[in-house]
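User: I've been going back and forth on whether these two constructs are worth ordering. Before I decide, could you fold them both?

Assistant: Sure. I'll take them in the order you sent them. The first construct and its structure tokens:
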Amino acid sequence: MKHRTVLITFLLTCLTFSALGQKVMSYNVRHCAGMDKVVDYDRTAAVIAGQQPDVVALQELDSMTERSGHCYQLGELACRMQYHPVFGSAIDYKGGKYGVGILTREQPLSTKSIPLPGEEPRVLLVVEMRDYVLACTHLDLEEEPRLASVPLIVAEAQRWQKPFILAGDWNDTLGSPLLQAMTKCFTILSDSTPTSPADQPQECIDFIASFNTYPVDALDSKVIEEPTASDHRPVVVTLSFDRQAIERQLKTYPESTLQDVYKSFYQDRFGPGHMIADTASARQYLMYELAEMKDKPAIYFEPTGSKGRFVRVYLSAVADGLITADKLLDAFVRSANMVQESSDDWAAEWHQIEETIIKNDIKVNGFEADTALLREASRQHQAIHHSRAYNAAYHPHYRIVERGIFENELKPLLNDK
């Protein structure tokens, strides 16, 4: 018991949040049996935790089978890392179930399993997160059922109005009929370095891909050099949703300048950006804004940046009687007074956002004029105001609220409008 407690403590020290993207891992763990055929949950968990993933797609998991000593293998891994487990059963096997699983840092919004064809039945496990959907599968050994799975996977991806990430063991290689069919609708994000067998990899059959309707960018991709913990090597991709957030901002607010893009991402990282000690003055200013507010936006709230750690709650929600001024003020003050995010790598994060704009040729008003100013602001970790153009066009009146506070206390009062 003492050994396991020490191990869990070690694993948790590995699991820190990455400010620069969402890290996705895919790993065929072969029921946690390594190349030495020893089932070792500590070893498997250490491999996963060492990469600090936000979500993990796992294949070949036992659930309560005789082979695994009637153990819930996904739960064993989740317990060691304090992740949320979601299991998808493909078949009944030796007194239990056998299939795939997903581990997530944050609580998923919804989950579902979709049967896929196979000589041995397969499954597509789908987990909805706030900003994207992750699907995990382990396709059949035979080509015909693999190809028959493609339209079923595409149909599911088309249902979602957010990025759809597909990860797993596809049991096929680049250039094959399966990969040709997949890449008509998906973009492969993962490295093509061989993944199997783990001790002397010869071919890449493990992939992470995004559905083309909602494209995402891969900031980094690698196959982990782990030769013993399973018969496959794990694949890791760091995803960025910055492009989507920038394009959403420009579509919603076409008069935005680069300064307004910076402000949204800065608020996403740091929230209100300062502590509030004088709540009386804060309330007085809120009431002043309410009295002076002329134009009301069509929405009551919207996420900041690409991660949505904080939410802009518009004063129109108060003006329309959905929430009280005091309730919004309380949520705002508590959000502002939370422990502040470290600003050490804010300049690097802003540089990444700039690079996303340039790489994707996104037209942003004032890009050339504002670039030098905002680079210096990022180095100084400075908050900035909305641009004059934005203020003139949209007359923004809102307060920044931490996402958890918003979801639990304010959103139910807004009737999901």
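The second construct, handled the same way:
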Amino acid sequence: MWTLKKLRALVSSEKASCEEAGIQFVHAAGRHKPPEQRAYEKLSALLEKWEGYEKKLFTMGNCRSSYSKTDPDAAFMHMKEDHMRSGQLKPGYNVQIAVNSEYITGAAAFPNRTDSGTLRPFLRRLEQQHRAKYRDIAADAGCNLNKLWAKCSTGRLKTHLFCLQKE
């Protein structure tokens, strides 16, 4: 099984063996490369690609399957203003807003595509900011998952979930 560490060691040992043998690397047009140089360049290209993949995986993180090159924090989502009806995904955020007595008391943007994974972190963030716990929570049907419902309704919260009709 190959690892990145083993590949780095192989590339450096290949370079050292070429230097020991006194092989001159050629880069001009019309000149034939020695087989050792070709092997070293193939391994170097493979190492460069592998390091690029590792960097992209690190940027993406463990909880996601894609990211935008222009905005790495955004997630790819279907947008409503798709005039061409191409179904193209665009980078975007899921924005959550908390309202109390018609006043906005909090807002947060999440890279999650759905509302199901944003309610609990959003409530925790609001409780930290306001230093108070909310007693009544109203959410739309996007948050209505069985696990979330059980956690909210059995604890200190009174939860009200609303179904919005699609037109």
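Notes on the second construct follow. The two ends are 54 Å apart (CA to CA). The chain has a mean pLDDT of 79.
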